[in-house]
Amino acid sequence: MTLKVILTRRWPTAVERALGERFDVVLRSGDRPMAQGELAGAMGECDVLCPTVSDRIDADIIAGGTRCRLIANYGVGFDHIDLAAARARDIAVTNTPGVLTDATADLALTLILMCARRAGEGEREVRRGDWSGWRPTHMIGSALKDKVLGVVGFGRIGQAVARRARYGFGMRIAYHARHASDAANALDAQFCPNVTDLLAMSDVVSLHVPGGAATANLIDAGAVAAMKRGSFLINTARGGVVDHDALAEGLRSGHLAGAGLDVYPQEPLVPPALLALENVVLLPHLGSATAETREAMGMRALANIAAFAGGAPLPDRVA
């Protein structure tokens, strides 16, 4: 029997075509998120549900899974899926790791450069027609060479960011993780078992930890206060890792020089406290947004669905 697969959003055309050649695929004609009721209904109609980070697959949705046996997530993060509820109903969950490492690392460096050189402020000034011409004291930013990049979370993406910063911009690297990493040796990176120590010594802090209860509001008011005065915070991980009210206060007070964010707790809503601040760069979740990466993510999801269909071990099972 051909598996019925439901996509919750539009996927790259090449991936939709490849899925359609092998399975009974239900595609989205538009590109809006499914409502919770639609998601619950889909769980009862398909063998495989393919959600994205914009879908909240909670226990109530999973309870509707009278037919669904696999949730093949389009993306590496899975904190929007209730894994315990999925396990309780014997529904497998997969993700798409590895393929978005370089794209996300590139975007983290984009945010670092935009913050350090005040590129967001400058671009807005030009568009408003407020630029009065070059002058020696205009919009002075910060150099990166010899500054300390503190990487919080030293997995694939954190390491990729560290390599770019070390070899591309001559930054010094420090990192916090559960354990010291052999990969840090080539970067001459300093391991900080205590995240507060890392925050205090870093000129730029870049977050690369998973979402979920363990990391919720990791950067809270206390963490912001512990950060080096004049430093920058970069988040391409998950929005819930940062207390945005505390961050906004740190930016308003001048304790932090700037921040660059690509993710938010309740997307597409952006915390209102940040919108009026000039010293923050706000991007619309572009971490994996290259044509090559988005197609590779879909093909990785396809590989998991194909393994499931063939009764083989799932390459990227997380539950």
Question: Can you put this structure into words, describing what you see?
Answer:
- It is a single chain.
- The protein has helices at 13-22, 36-45, 59-63, 83-88, 101-116, 119-128, 156-169, 195-201, 221-226, 244-253, 272-275, 291-309, and strands at residues 4-7, 24-26, 48-50, 70-72, 92-94, 148-152, 172-176, 190-191, 204-207, 231-235, 256-261, 280-282.
- The protein is built from 12 helices and 12 strands.
- The chain is 37% helix and 14% strand.
- It is of the alpha/beta class.
- Helix 1 (13-22) packs parallel to helix 12 and helix 5 packs across helix 7 (156-169).
- It folds into 2 domains: 4-99 and 290-309, Rossmann fold; 101-282, 3-Layer(aba) Sandwich (Rossmann fold).
- Helix 9 links the parallel strand 9 (204-207) and strand 10 (231-235).
- The protein has a 7-stranded parallel sheet, with helices on both faces. The chain has a 5-stranded parallel sheet with strand order 2-1-3-4-5, with helices on both faces.
- It is globular and about 70 Å long.
